[in-house]
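Hi R.,

Here's the chain you asked about this morning:
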Amino acid sequence: MPLDLLRRRTVVISRGAGFAFMAAFYGTVFVFSIYLQQQRGLSALATDLAFVPMTVLSAFINPLSARAAERYVAPGSDRVRHVPDEGRDG
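And here is the predicted structure, written out as tokens:
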């Protein structure tokens, strides 16, 4: 991976947004699983089943969000594209 990618504003922002989303997502799962088991009295299996809709939804939304990002990117923005390194063999 070329290190100059880490200096691009769009890469830094997207990595930061991805980190914030994943931290919030897994934090939500952690906190709600404790809440459902201790406060609502659900078993571990019932708690797992309560998260199935969220898991299925995120599995279907993730590929769609990548397509939307490609489609609705601002013209002239700093898009990251794969550029082959001419100095490498193969």
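One quick note: The two ends are 15 Å apart (CA to CA).

Cheers,
M.
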